[in-house]
Amino acid sequence: MKTYQMLVDGAWVAAESGRTLAVMNPATGEVMARVPEAAAADVDKAARAARRAFDEGWRDVTAQERGRILFRLAEQVRKDVKALAELETLNSGKPLVESEYDINDVATCFEYYGGLATKLHGEVLNVPDNAVSLALREPLGVAGQIIPWNYPLLMAAWKIAPALCAGCTVVLKPAEATPATAIALARILDAVSDLPKGVVNIITGDGPTVGAPLVAHPAVDKIAFTGSVEVGKRIMRSAADTLKKVSLELGGKSPNIFFADADFESAVDGALFGVFVNQGEVCSAGSRVLIQRPIYKKMLDAMVEKAKRIKLGSGMDPATKMGPLVSKEQMERVMRYQEIGRKEAKVASGGGRPREPELQKGYFVEPTIFYDVDNSATIAREEIFGPVMSVIPFDDEKDAIRIANDTPFGLAAAVWSRDIFKVFRVVRRLQAGIVWVNHMQPTYVEAPWGGYKMSGIGRELGPWGAEEYLQVKQVHVNLNEAPIAWY
Ligand code: NAI
Ligand code: MG
Q1: Per-residue pLDDT tens for 82-103?
Q2: 230 alpha carbon to ligand 1 midpoint, in Å?
Q3: Tens digit of pLDDT for each residue in 314-370?
Q4: Which residues are CB-contacts of 38 (< 8 A; sequence separation ≥ 6)?
Q5: How far is the CA of 25 from the CAs of 56, 229, 363, in angstroms?
Q6: 155 lines ligand 1 (CB under 6 A)
Q7: Which of 198, 213, 289, 440 is an S-S bond match for 40, by CB 3.0 to 4.6 Å?
């Protein structure tokens, strides 16, 4: 079995302690590799390396050169799509077609930020004096980046690409469950991109022993995090001590709203796709399905009919539509919510683990539909992060908006209707950072990604994503040749 090393200051290293962590294949419950189990001493090395790389050179590399490096990365990722996708599926469980989609998106993300690098610029301000007033945009410095396990390589790209585009250096920690493709990316970074050493450091280990010291480290200027609200809050508190900038993407309990005049077939598929894609391990999952009463029963029946045919299996099997959950821990968490759900609402479909003998060793959970769910129920309020849909009926537009917004979260929402006037009335009222109309989940690197309310702080992707890694410097150039003549 392979024991990988991690990339710190341009060198492939083990953890200083020599300890390693097991990387699992969630479809079989078997160990597929081992990675270094880093700790504070390794974080310190990586953070100092990133600091040095920034101070001693990276900050002066031209935007054109940074862009070219990102293009080279994109090119190599595109060449390696198949191998990277297989590795992603083996480690995360997701169906191979979804991994291929993700890895292509990774390349697109590097391309986008490669192009954007030369388009970031400051401004000349119209001040009332004989002077030139400038607002320069400069890189923040060292970015600590902590990512989750649901889109392992894509989340790494969403973090690394805008940081390099803006001129920052990076220490990235993948989730402990899914480090495989991040290490593969480190190898690409090391081999093809001519990145000076220390510009990107990738260290493996868990949250408390690697993530926490990274957040606390004085050489790190900014933390970008995607994950749970609980850890997001902890990061913000800890970052206060060194006054780091933080951006947080924290998931949600997103409403997927179906009016009676929606196209029926699209609605059924859109509701299922909204919450069952990627096994429901999606921050923007449409886990609350709000259906207007005239179509409530008919749509529920149609969803159940289709949900029963969703094929569970290894992500490597091309027939698979839903893979295992990422870890035993996550499977158990989802099973606990299903138990709660059975007491709070009615089960229309699924509700447990599949019975097929070949699925017993992996972390599989059936696609589950609860109906007649009250919006105050635990399964309507808390993020489950698994294939669990809570179906909630509503009467009219006002009712739909009230239920949709009655949540501490505000990441995403979707509205389905043929009435453009109604759609826009609802869109304007929804408290969410992302709103889809007659679809749910398409995501583009060109468009901003992030949440209202407790779903986070800041925006990823597009120019907004690069902005999170920049700071503004005001420069005033006096053009009056005479002395100030004040004293
Ligand atoms: P988590 O928030 O604990 O893990 C996300 C990342 O944060 C991982 O890399 C982890 O190692 C790191 N981390 C954990 N504790 C940390 C700490 N004290 N300081 C710094 N970094 C730390 O998420 P977990 O436990 O894997 O999943 C729990 C729940 O979180 C899920 O059921 C889901 O509801 C939510 N979640 C949301 C995600 C999103 O995309 N918004 C992604 C993953 C989980
Ligand atoms: Mg956790």
Answers
A1: 999 999 999 999 999 999 999 9
A2: 8
A3: 999 999 999 999 999 999 999 999 999 999 999 999 999 999 999 999 999 999 999
A4: 6, 15, 16, 203, 204, 205, 209, 210
A5: 41, 26, 9
A6: no
A7: 213
